[in-house]
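Sample A.
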Amino acid sequence: MSVYRVRVTDLPPFGARLARLLEHRGLRAAGLAEAAGVLLARIDAVLGGGVPDDPLLRRLAPTLGLHAADLFLIAARGVPDDLAPAELNGSDEVGSLLIWGAHTMDVQARARLRRFVDGLPSRARPRTRPFPSDGRRSVTPGLILRRLLSNRNIRINGVLLQELGGGRHLDTETYALACAGRLPLDDDCVNAFARVTAIPVGELAALLGLRVAELPWDMRYPWPADLVELAWAARRLDDEQLRAALHYRDGLRNAGGC
């Protein structure tokens, strides 16, 4: 298994990582500018080491097939409030909705759970703290991976990264240490984060400045893409709504939807 061979604390400038992504896709800067509806000079400025402004990141995200909030994090920027996930204060988080057997629910039950989540009303509440608010000033590839999970209101969890990401059976602390730069970010780890965030691993690796091999999914069940999509849909839920979704999921499981 190959391992990221430079220090995991090294994060190339955003422009260099964007250039890696364009090379990975076989796309020229002019093509990106045209697709995003921006001047080529703005793309060239970023590729040359300039800092992208908020409007440019918003325009680039859909063109690159990324959620805008994810691209802000990849660019080592704070996420604007209108793009940030709900601010949770309780012990539950979206990861609680996805693990401990959720992948064993049948397709119909999972579809009902998604409809329940989608049917909950939007509650726009002002944030009391910025996102991310982890206090980290030095941004590393591992920190970005951690923040991408947080952008879905998911905490690092070894079970989740195995069940949804196909990662090795490692404890939560081991994954946390890898994200903190105290253990190597190996191919298996990055592949697991890529699947949980639904960002193709080759593209995620380019945007992190890493060299990562894409590994096959080898769990005993198909990759639960619908649960990964559910995570994004559920990131807007507040504490009360998340508890309601957890209660609804438990009801489905107790009714035999497994």
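Sample B, a different protein:
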Amino acid sequence: CRLRPFVELAAKVRRHRVAIEQALRSGSSNAMAESTNTKIRVLTRVAFGFRSPQPLIAMAMLSVGGACPQLPGRNRPSTLERPPV
């Protein structure tokens, strides 16, 4: 008794076996890409009222792009400074 869904699953596994084995060996996944996509999707909802795409792009760069500009009037704590005891 060969159930059709399992026959289809076996065919897919056979077809993608090399890629599956490589993914298992390397231990990598698409988790970081999915996380970034989700964050950008949320930013798109937040930026709904913006009149142009430039503010959305700037928000995305600040949020997920790793940009960390020095803001006027704010001092970033140095890694060498210790908080007062």
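Observation for Sample B: Residues 4-64 form one domain.
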